[in-house]
Design a protein that fits this description.
This protein is α+β, with helices and mostly antiparallel strands. The protein has one domain (7-131): Thiol Ester Dehydrase, Chain A (Roll), CATH 3.10.129. It is built from three helices and five strands, in the order E-H-E-E-E-E-H-H. It has helices at residues 31-50, 134-153, 163-169, and strands spanning 12-17, 53-59, 73-83, 87-98, 103-117. Strands 1-3-4-5-2 form a five-stranded antiparallel sheet. A hairpin with a 4-residue loop joins strand 4 and strand 5 (103-117). The protein starts with 11 loop residues before the first strand and ends with a helix. Bound molecules: coenzyme A. Residues 55-58, 84-87, 113, 115, 117, 121, 123, 150-151, 154, 156 line the site of coenzyme A.
Length: 172
């Protein structure tokens, strides 16, 4: 039995500056570049929780509502919300900052799932996660629902077994 860990032990903050090679022809950050940075930040978080090599199993929907401009500073913060058997859900938030203008806006949020693997790429057990703050407890609870939704969509779980999801639609 692995010793449980707290969310703060997996917290990772990563900062990047948007340079010309990161942008599209409108001088905004390319979505693919942002996804690349987000994947790295979230993977480090999952590695810190599990002390293992991890692979990305899935990324929930990411929307791009605010353009991030050339020269902006992009800050990403990731933390594990819940650990299952070999998989971990990581919550990641992104902010863009225009330092000369003194402006900082929240631009993206995403949930990633990583699987810890052994040297042969086989899934391996990870420590449980013990949430502490109210926000961590809420994310921990809702992680079960998100896991069921993504496993149903991936064809890895029968909708009939998605008890947490079904409970959402049951009228008392
Ligand atoms: C992720 C991977 C290791 C799962 O292997 P597998 O043989 O299907 O293993 P299992 O069926 O035992 O599942 C292992 C875990 O992955 C989770 N998982 C598998 N597919 C998933 C998906 N699409 N979404 C979320 N979780 C998923 C399972 O729920 C399980 O979690 P648990 O152990 O916490 O219960 C394997 O599919 C893989 O190596 N994929 C490629 C990963 C990769 O290269 N990522 C980068 C993409 S370029």
């Amino acid at each position: 039995m692995l010793k449980p860990k707290q969310p703060h032990q997996s917290e990772v903050t990563m900062t990047e500056m948007v340079l010309p090679n990161d942008t599209n022809t409108l001088n905004n950050l390319m979505g693919g570049r942002l996804l690349h940075w987000m994947d790295i930040c979230a993977a480090i978080s999952a590695q810190k929780h599990s002390n293992r090599i991890v692979v990305t199993a899935s990324v929930d929907n990411v929307s791009f509502t605010e353009p991030i401009r050339l020269g902006n500073i992009v800050t990403m913060r990731a933390k594990v919300t819940r650990a299952f058997n070999s998989s971990m859900e990581v919550f990641l938030e992104v902010w863009a900052e225009d330092i000369p203008a003194g402006q900082r806006v929240s631009t993206n949020r995403a949930f990633y799932t990583f699987v810890a693997v052994d040297q042969n790429g086989r899934p391996i057990e990870v420590p449980a996660l013990q949430p502490e703050t109210d926000e961590e407890k809420e994310l921990h609870l809702s992680a079960l629902r998100r896991r069921q939704l993504r496993l149903v969509l991936a064809g890895r779980m029968s909708p009939a077994d998605a008890t947490e999801l079904k409970a959402l639609f049951q009228v008392a």
